[in-house]
Amino acid sequence: MIEDRGEVFPSFSIDENHRGVLGLKEAHQSVFSSDARVAMSSSVNDGGWLAEYGIPTVCYGPGKLKHAHTVDEHVEIKQLILYTKSVLQFMLNWCNHTKEEQ
Q1: How many domains does the chain have?
Q2: How far apart are CA 29 and CA 1, in angstroms?
């Protein structure tokens, strides 16, 4: 568990070999022309609650973590557009597989 400003959030880890993670990494590579960085996040989010109930979960977003959830929270438009393209590509690929393949 991680405590942030008095709130408690469960931490979570991901299975880097999960078909969803591999698909997201593939979509990221295709759009950004670079490998997705897989690492432990130093921030808190609700993903831990999903993982706590056995729902495979990743935390993936645009921009730099140092700009997230700050007084000057921002992301470059180009980063947002590329991120959106990568998520859309992932969703199109993921939704065109049978459940057994996922």
Answers
A1: 1
A2: 31
Question: Which residues does residue 7 pair with via DSSP β-bridges, in sequence order?
Answer: 4
Determine the residue type at 84: T
pLDDT class of 41 with cuts at 50, 70, 90: confident
Q: Which residues touch 23 (CB under 8 Å, ≥6 apart)?
A: 90, 93, 94
The answer to whether the beta carbons of residues 24 and 58 sit under 8 Å apart is: yes
pTM of the model: 0.81
The DSSP letter of residue 97 is: S
The CATH number of the domain where 62 resides is what?
A: 3.40.630.10
- Give the residue among 55, 102, 62 at the shortest CA–CA distance from 81: 62
The stretches of the chain forming alpha helices (DSSP H) are 19-32, 47-52, 77-94
* Residue 42 phi, psi dihedral angles, 5° rounding: -90, 0
Q: Residue 72 is part of which domain span?
A: 2-101
